[in-house]
Amino acid sequence: MRDTIVELLAANAEHASEFADRFDDVQDAQHPEAVTVCCSDSRVLQDLVWGNEEPGRLFTCGNIGNRVVQESEAGPVVSGDVLYPLAHTGTEVAVVVGHTGCGAVTATYDELTGGIDEPAGIEHCVSLLADELEAGVEALPDDIDRADAVNHLVEYNVDRQVEFLKESDEVPDDVTVVGVVYDFQDVYTDRRGEVHVVNVDGERDVATLCQEHPETEDRIRRRWSY
């Protein structure tokens, strides 16, 4: 057995010992407070981002590019793994979690500005993002470098995913949808690992968001207004 597996199993044994009594109230049902849609990048510790160690509190979804969209015979629809808790467990909050330096957004930017050569599965995921980001690439400032362009598009991608959820007839009207960016590259501040709110229910103007949500004013910021 590879050392990595041995180490993972050892860590799981510690987890099982620590968490043995934390599943009593959720063995038969779940009612998570929020569904989070994170990029599956290994640097984004999806539950630890929120300090979450409580089984049943968060319904965590992960994919490259923190997408809420999937293709169906009827066209683009809200991904079932995102929709499930909103439709069946009483969850009333959805959080789209982008992150600085996102590889999926980078690949999409490269595809839209010159083309990429990737396996079919990756190209499919990139194509889903490309449909959302094409207008964003066209709107980028002329004098921007590649790294800055990607981080601008990280925000733009979060905005598009929030918009798709808000406009979907499948998502209940009373669901609050928040878009955030997780920063571990000193792009927003020097506090690595901090989450920054960039969008709430489609509103992305910083001044308006601060006025409407003064309790989180110090966590609201954007790099790109368009």
Automatic annotation (TrEMBL):
Record keywords = Lyase, Metal-binding, Zinc
Gene3D superfamilies given for it? Carbonic anhydrase
Give the reaction(s) catalysed: hydrogencarbonate + H(+) = CO2 + H2O
Q: Name one GO molecular function term.
A: metal ion binding
Q: Which residues form a coiled coil?
A: none
Q: How is the cofactor bound, in the record's words?
A: Binds 1 zinc ion per subunit.
Q: Does the keyword Metal-binding apply?
A: yes
Essential cofactor(s): Zn(2+)
> Which residues does the record give as Zn(2+) binding sites?
39, 99, 102
Could you tell me the EC number(s) of this protein? 4.2.1.1
Provide the family line: Belongs to the beta-class carbonic anhydrase family.
Name the record gives this protein:
carbonic anhydrase
- What species was this sequence derived from? Haloarchaeobius litoreus
